[in-house]
Amino acid sequence: IPDLLSEEEVDGVRKAVRSEVRELGLLDNDENCWSFFMNRVRQQLKVVLCMSPVGNSLRLHARRFPALLNCTTLDWFQEWPLEALQSVSFKFLQDIPSIQ
Asked: Where is the Dynein heavy chain AAA module D4 domain (predicted)?
């Protein structure tokens, strides 16, 4: 995405990865540092898209962007009963002291 980061932010990213680039035996110039960062982002980036199967939205998006179906993993979830949602949320929240 063009201009997502300011030049100052890009410099900060390069500085943050400079030592790791050196550890790989690469020259730690700006280009190598940025390439290292971008490769790491590509390897680790996860995106979650939530769409309802009701209506035309999912079908239209799949037609316009075929990679949504061809290059991703679809996890299809059915509606959960209220009791199940409450039980799972309670399990995760019970260990947080500030939430009673």
From this structure: 1-96
Going from N- to C-terminal start, the domains of the chain cover: 7-75
The rounded distance, in Å, linking the Cα atoms of 69 and 63 is 9
Sole residue written with tokens 């730690």: 28
Q: Which residue has the tokens 């790989």?
A: 24
Residues 47, 73: Cα–Cα separation, whole Å: 11
- At 56, list the tokens: 């035309």
Q: What percent of the chain has pLDDT over 90?
A: 55
Q: How many CB atoms lie within 10 A of CB 14?
A: 19
**How far is residue 16's CA from residue 23's CA, in Å, rounded to a whole number?**
13
pTM: 0.59
Instruction: State residue 99's pLDDT score.
Output: 72
